[in-house]
Each structure stands twice: as structure tokens, then as C-alpha cells.
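Lecture 7 notes: from sequence to structure.
We start with the chain below.
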Amino acid sequence: MELKERIAKLRRIKNLTQAELAEKVGVTTRSIQNYELGTRVPKMDTVVKIAEVLGVDEKVLMSDDDYFVIEAHEKYGSRGKKDAEELVKNATALFAGGTISERDKALVLEAIQEAYFEAKIINKKYTPKKYRKNDDSISDKSD
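Predicted C-alpha cells for the same chain:
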């Protein structure tokens, strides 16, 4: 079950409408609709608020894959989110039909996620200064 499905299911269990959940979380009704449709991924602080309103721990709402996708989205934008989703999909396909323990599967996925973020950091070093975000160019000027 994905994050979008867990949000919708828990909202229904609590007998809340999308509008009521949105009001309690402090977002628009359209945002909740997008989260439940899977067209948008909430930021971590929003996930925490949703979990509080629904009376569950955020770990109940999110899998390790969800954490990875949200972290990639927050750090690298929509392209990072798309890359992370593709990585998760390909890694999941890698295990299809095989016999591997859940622990080993989690370790492999964790290694792939770490490699992804390390590659992003390394690639950022080679981005020309004029294309870097402001926070990077500020630290480069002090050199």
C-alpha cells in the first residue's frame, strides 16, 4: 500500500472529509486531493501533521521508499522525485520472483538510496557556478 492509499484509508477510518483533514492540517482541500491521488507528494512536515491529525505515527503512513522519494523531492525538486521513484520501481523489479529476505532487500535498497544521494552531491560539484542555486554560489565566493 502506498502513501496516497494509507492517507485516504486512515482519513475514512477517522470519518473525516478531505476538507476537514485539510483544515486540521493547515493545507488546502486540493492539496489533500492531490496527496490521495498521488499527483503530489507532501513535504515531511505536512506528513507529520497529517499523522498527528489521523492519530498515527508518521512511520505508519510512510514506508522507507516514501521517505526516500520525499527526501529526494525536498532536496532536488521534481526531477529528484522522479529519479527516486524510478530507482524504487527498478529496485523493486530487481527483486521480483527472487528469494531474498526482507532484511537483505532493505539493506540493498538502503545502499542504492545512499549511492543516489552521494552521486547527487558529487554531480553538484561539477555544476558550473552560473547554474548553481544561490546558497552554493555564496559559499563558493568565500573561497
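Points to note: Residues 136-143 have pLDDT under 50 and may be disordered. The radius of gyration is 18 Å.
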